[in-house]
Write a structure and sequence with these properties.
With 81 residues, the protein is mainly alpha-helical. The protein is built from 3 helices and no strands. Helix 1 runs antiparallel to helix 2 and helix 2 runs antiparallel to helix 3. The longest helix is centred in the C-terminal third of the chain and has 25 residues. The protein is elongated, with a radius of gyration of 15 Å. The chain starts with a helix and ends in an 8-residue tail after the last helix.
Length: 81
């Protein structure tokens, strides 16, 4: 079980680095969503199911939806309308 927890922790760090260093914003949002889902798994390992459910709903679902909605709502430079 500890090996799985360590692998999840290393994967968390990798996706956090990818979310920060990604050149495209949409890729950063996707990496951030994956990071939230992995944190849900780590919260389950830490025996905090209520925090895991909250993270799944808010962190993975709501925040990702708000980021994507905001990204597509931004007008690009040079748009006439």
């Amino acid at each position: 079980m500890q090996i799985v927890e360590i692998l999840v922790g290393i994967t968390l760090l990798i996706f956090a680095f990818l979310a920060i260093e990604s050149k495209k914003i949409i890729n950063s949002i996707i990496y951030l969503s994956i990071l939230s889902m992995l944190s849900v798994i780590s919260f389950v390992f830490m025996k905090a199911p209520d925090v895991a459910i909250t993270e799944a709903v808010i962190g993975s679902g709501l925040v990702t939806a708000v980021f994507i909605f905001t990204l597509f709502s931004i007008k690009k430079v040079g748009d006439k309308k």
